[in-house]
Amino acid sequence: MLSRSWPARSLFRPSDFRFFDVPTPTVPLNVTQDEEKFVVRVELPGMKPEDISVAAEKNQLTIAAKRTIATDEKATYRRRERVEGSFERSFALPQPFDADKVEAKYADGVLTVTLPKSAEAKPRKIAVTAVTGVVKEGGK
Amino acid sequence: MSRIFTPAVDIFETDKAITLLADLPGVKAEDLAVDVHDDVLTLTAKTESALRSGTFFRQFTLSEAIDQSKIEAALVDGVLKLELGKVEKSKPRQISVKAG
């Protein structure tokens, strides 16, 4: 996927969404990690999986989504706060991950991307061996 | 720490019903409460996730009487759709004016 990067602060491209009487929308995004993996979560309520794209390359992750809200032409609108438009965010994770094993799931309006860390990024446990007996230094 | 979040909503109405759409990402149906009491509509949804921890909360005063038996709520992909049927009014009578 073409990876265009937008300034980190503007999660929505200004030209792509309509402003209503609410402050500039932000898409909350959260990155957590443990020894095995990174987990990226993004709130994208009311979307279809086909409107969300996730691309992983090297240690770069790109998430793009397009939200459209159907308008009921016959109805009278009292409030319109929910925004529609495109969202794209591209960022590097601090350690390399295994791009072939990245999984993306969408449930309850939340996108969860799981990125297993590559072998070299995982911490290595080094066993400590007890040495019995007298360790002679030097010698005759 | 428990926080209060204000969900974004769309509200529109027709002659028969008021429809409310609210963005409630990460909320499951069992954690959502919708209450209509007198003319006040209250939405409360608990959320405990890595993204947010707290409660989505919002109240609205309804401009028209709602038929309590005509309330339908559905939560799909983190969006609540609430349909509130209006109390049916007696139809306006047509009075024909005759030229005298």
Describe the structure.
The complex is a heterodimer of chains A (140) and B (100). In chain A, 0% of the residues lie in helices and 36% in strands. Chain A has no helices and 8 strands. A 4-stranded antiparallel beta sheet of chain A has the order 1-2-8-7, with no helix packed on it. Chain A has a 3-stranded antiparallel beta sheet with strand order 3-4-6, with no helix packed on it. In chain A, a hairpin with a 2-residue loop joins β3 and β4 (60-67). By secondary structure, chain B is mostly beta strands. In chain B, 0% of the residues lie in helices and 58% in strands. Chain B contains no helices and 8 strands. In chain B, the strands form 2 sheets. A 4-stranded mixed beta sheet of chain B has the order 1-6-5-4, with no helix packed on it. In chain B, strands 2-3-8-7 form a 4-stranded antiparallel beta sheet, with no helix packed on it. In chain B, a hairpin with a 2-residue loop joins β7 and β8 (79-86). The radius of gyration of chain B is 18 Å and the shape is elongated. The mean pLDDT of chain B is 89. Classes of the chains: A mainly beta (140), B mainly beta (100). The interface between A and B is medium-sized, with 29 and 24 residues.
**Structural shape of chain B:** elongated
Structural class of chain B: mainly beta
N→C terminal distance of chain B: 76 Å
Mean pLDDT metric of chain B: 89
* Unreliable spans of chain A: 1-25
Q: Tally the beta strands of chain B.
A: 8
Q: What is the count of DSSP helices of chain A, taking H or I runs of 4+ residues?
A: 0
Uncertain regions of chain B: pLDDT < 50 for 5+ in a row?
A: none
Largest sheet of chain B: 4 strands, mixed
Strand content of chain A: 35-45%
Regarding quaternary structure, what we see is heterodimer
CA radius of gyration of chain B:
18 Å
Number of strands of chain A: 8
Interface with most residues:
A-B, 29 and 24 residues
Largest sheet of chain A: 4 strands, antiparallel
Series of H and E elements of chain B = EEEEEEEE
What is the 3D shape of chain A?
Answer: rod-shaped
Question: What proportion strand of chain B?
Answer: over 45%
Strand order of the largest sheet of chain A: 1-2-8-7
Percent range for helical residues of chain A?
under 10%
> Overall mean pLDDT score of chain A?
80
